[in-house]
Amino acid sequence: MDWLEALQRLRSTDQPGVLATVTGVRGHAPREAGAKMLVGASESWDSIGGGNLEATVIDRARAMLDGGATTPESLTFTLNERAVTQHGKQCCGGVVEVLLEPFLPRPTVAVFGVGHVGHELARILSRLPVHLYLVDSRADQVSPDRLADVLGGVADVHPVHSPVPDSVLGTLPAGAHVLIMTHDHAEDFLLCDAALHRSDLGSVGLIGSSAKWSRFRARLQTEGHPGETIERISCPIGLPDIAGKAPAVIAISVAARLLQLLPTAAPSGATAGRR
Fold this sequence. Notes:
Blueprint: H1 3-12, E1 17-26, E2 36-39, E3 44-45, H2 51-67, E4 73-78, E5 95-103, E6 108-112, H3 116-125, E7 131-136, E8 156-161, H4 165-169, E9 177-180, H5 185-196, E10 203-206, H6 210-222, H7 227-230, E11 233-234, H8 247-261
Parallel strand pairs: 6-7, 6-9, 7-8, 9-10, 10-11
Antiparallel strand pairs: 1-2, 1-5, 2-3, 4-5
């Protein structure tokens, strides 16, 4: 399996990795500029030259994975017998530069309620590399015809019709970002209650005014949720400096705030093979 096939496999199974690319060579070196290797948590694919160079890159790449790194790094290797090494000498005589680009699993975003605002938000988020769940208790809101302008983006879109949306919330993966904007305040409340029973969500946002949130906060306290737990829910949602109540404006504001919460690491090869 080459690095590109391995990258596609890691992405399809939501595993992180680091793409190592030889970006510069001066003098003699085991591989040319452009050679690539992919490093996963327990395996690596292809080669950038073997020996100390490759072993050191693998060590650093796995340290980046363990630390959740999102920023690319550059390493420079002098291939002569005087260079300090950890994994044996390489005496090719040249200098090699290697770029390490981490990529993370696609984050999960779940939008509960695909009405006017939810649909506008789905259109925006469908352009991002995310797993996008669109959940509604009304079957027509998540029909393929209605979501035709959402299904053609780079996101992995999962329309879900469920009469009990809060049960769907319980099945989301850890780290999922939840946005609650249904047509029914009673449904919104049940979703908030279900979200607070999970401590592993990435974020929880509720659409609505400060007055709505004041009522919800009091009811959630009555249901036994501690104050610090309730504060995990953000309401109102979006960026406070973006004013306007039009669905598209609200959706842009919410998407902008979400972007501040999502990881950004994605090497150039990470989109290879996408439709």
